[in-house]
Specification:
This protein is an alpha/beta fold. The chain has 20 helices and 16 strands. It folds into two domains: 22-154 and 196-375, no CATH class; 399-532, 3-Layer(bba) Sandwich (Glucose Oxidase, domain 1), CATH 3.50.30.80. The two termini are 27 Å apart. The structure holds FE2/S2 (inorganic) cluster (FES) and magnesium ion.
């Protein structure tokens, strides 16, 4: 019998039990960590703590301390904690984009879990891609798994105003370029930009994915929004450590939590948060690993009548810290409860409904009541048409109402570099009705789908007060950005999508309420243009970039690698020699 009274043999017992040579080698080596004789033979669950801390990723810089708190909880509950590092993906530093490496990180997490004798795992992520990468990798192994994101950084303050990471960087850069801000003031703002470790504190991709992890049932209720430096985060980490040991004894695996209902909850919560469009890609990829059917159209259908309740930047006004003190995700989910799949099981062992039944809201401006939403069905809409046969998305809450139905002449850039080189040219033939198009920025095309979809507004229009235009691309957009931006166009230009056929001067018609995106050029002409398209040369001859270019799926399938979709379980490849 194990300490919890179950007779189930733990995965780790296979490695550490018995009297053979391997058992001696394994136990002996682990004793080098200071584990006393017999500890790992005693049947206590071995709990992995996947730590994506890195000095190259300041958002995750504090995860070592968080891991220490998780360890205390694991010890207290009768488990044995082991921390292991994984790849980390620092959004602020990596080129061309962290998204190029999300799938690589997921492989690191997956193979580390499968090859090592852990019985359960706590995933410590935070910065944008780290949370989805961990969820993807862990889902392909399917151990008892609990997510603990690192929490948002403190709200930044600068000369009497607040600053939102990402969101205000663009504004400050625009101000200094337009001559409205002195360079000294710009540098002073830089010094106030990130007040602590933790991920971006607006409802960008990191806050979105942390919330999504909680909405999926993978993170303890109320923990995703605790500010990174808050003592409550270490307390939550301690509780997470205790809980993962129980989950191992209960054999509460990820596959019991990641049901279609869990994904429905995540999509709806993301709509109520007005969260990042990146969540669409990540949820599709996670569902692909978990074997849960999920399609782009599910997002549009599920979010249609969901009230937008969280008044958070970039679409709203407040910050993650405010959201946390208003009651966080449990308060929001309680208000949303009639829209949710309430029976979905979570890491607590209880259902979503049980988890949030007693949740209170302490600030109705930050988390709006149902009778005072910021919008209805204002989440990420899915568009289709001859320009995006496999779909494209738009974050409605970040778009201008006056541009949601729009016809305009296309101005096409073949690359983002071409766009950047020409966009501010005073002689550029562009006005506020022009539809800006940039292509070759998709998963294969760039590679990695950089967050460039919110193309800059031409300076000559900015100076006339134009602050938004319709922009279309196969790229992504940062969760901290805004504008009438149509992104994730699939198939991408580099995969032969119709986006490759658009020419400057063509008319494009957008109708978000009707969910259409149409290139007003007849099929025969498009066919002629397709025949004239040059063959796209291969760009990468070796290494990760080659593997990625050869195997990445399109945006509507989550941009995972084709051979990573699905799961292979926790059995080591080839077994135990
Ligand atoms: Fe890491 Fe924004 S840069 S979350
Ligand atoms: Mg981001």
């Amino acid at each position: 019998m194990t300490p919890a009274g179950t007779s189930r043999r733990l995965r780790s017992n296979r490695y550490y039990g018995g009297y053979n040579q391997q058992a001696l080698v394994r136990n002996g080596h682990m004793q080098a960590l200071g584990f006393p004789d017999g500890l790992l033979r005693s049947g206590k669950p071995l709990i992995g703590i996947a730590n994506s801390q890195s000095d190259l990723n300041p958002c995750n810089a504090h995860l070592g301390e968080v891991a220490e708190a998780v360890k205390r909880g694991v010890w207290e509950a009768g488990g044995v904690p082991v921390v292991f590092p994984t790849i980390s993906l620092g959004e602020a530093n990596m080129l061309p984009t962290t998204m190029l490496f999300r799938n690589l990180m997921s492989m690191d997490v997956e193979e580390t879990l499968r090859a090592n004798p852990v019985d359960g795992v706590v995933l410590l992520g935070g910065c944008d891609k780290t949370t989805p990468a961990q969820l993807m990798g862990a889902a392909s192994v399917d151990l008892p798994t609990l997510v603990l994101t690192g929490g948002p950084m403190l709200t930044s303050r600068f000369r009497g105003r607040t600053l939102g990471t990402g969101t205000d960087a663009r504004k400050l850069a625009d101000e200094v370029r337009a001559g409205r801000m002195a360079p000294e003031e710009f540098f002073a703002a830089e010094g106030c930009y990130a007040r602590s470790a933790g991920h971006c504190m607006v409802m960008g991709t990191a806050s979105t994915m942390a919330s999504v992890a909680e909405a999926l049932g993978m993170q303890l209720p109320g923990t995703s929004s605790i500010p990174a430096p808050d003592a409550a985060r270490k307390q939550a980490a301690h509780r997470a450590g205790r809980r993962i040991v129980e989950m191992v004894h209960e054999d509460l695996r990820m596959s019991r939590i990641l049901t279609r209902g869990a994904f429905e909850n995540a999509v709806k919560v993301n709509a109520a948060l007005s969260g990042s469009t990146n969540a669409v890609l990540h949820l599709l990829a996670i569902a692909g690993r978990a074997g849960v059917p999920l399609e782009l159209d599910d997002f549009d259908l599920w979010m249609r009548d969901v009230p937008w309740l969280a008044n958070l930047r970039p679409a709203g006004e407040h910050y993650m810290e405010d959201f946390h003190h208003a009651g966080g995700l449990p308060a929001l989910m309680r208000r949303l409860i009639d829209h949710l799949e309430t029976k979905a099981l979570t890491v607590t062992g209880a259902t979503v409904a049980e988890n949030v039944a007693a949740a209170e809201c302490f600030d109705d401006d930050v988390i709006r009541p149902l009778d005072r939403p910021l919008g209805i069905g204002a989440g990420t809409a899915v568009l289709r048409g001859n320009l995006a046969p496999d779909g494209a998305v738009i974050k409605q809450a970040a778009a201008s109402p006056g541009l949601m139905r729009h016809r305009g002449r296309a101005l096409v850039f073949d690359t983002i570099q071409e766009c950047e080189a020409k966009i501010h040219d005073p002689d550029l033939d562009v006005d506020e009705n022009t539809v800006l198009v940039v292509r070759n920025c998709g998963p294969k095309g760039y590679p990695g789908m950089p967050e460039v979809a919110n193309l800059p507004i031409p300076r000559k229009l900015l100076e006339r007060g134009v602050d938004d235009m319709v922009r279309i691309s196969d790229a992504r957009m940062s969760g901290t950005a805004y504008g009438t931006v149509i992104l994730h166009v699939a198939p991408e230009a580099a995969a032969g999508g119709p986006l490759a056929l658009v020419r400057t001067g063509d008319v494009i018609a957008l109708d978000v309420p009707a969910r259409t995106l149409v290139l007003e050029v007849d099929d025969a002409e498009l066919q002629r243009r397709r025949q004239g398209l040059p063959e796209r040369p291969r760009r990468f001859e070796r290494g990760w970039a080659k593997l990625y270019e050869d195997h990445v799926l399109q945006a509507d399938q989550g941009a995972d690698l084709d051979f990573l979709v699905g799961a292979s379980g926790a059995e080591p490849h080839g077994g135990d020699p």
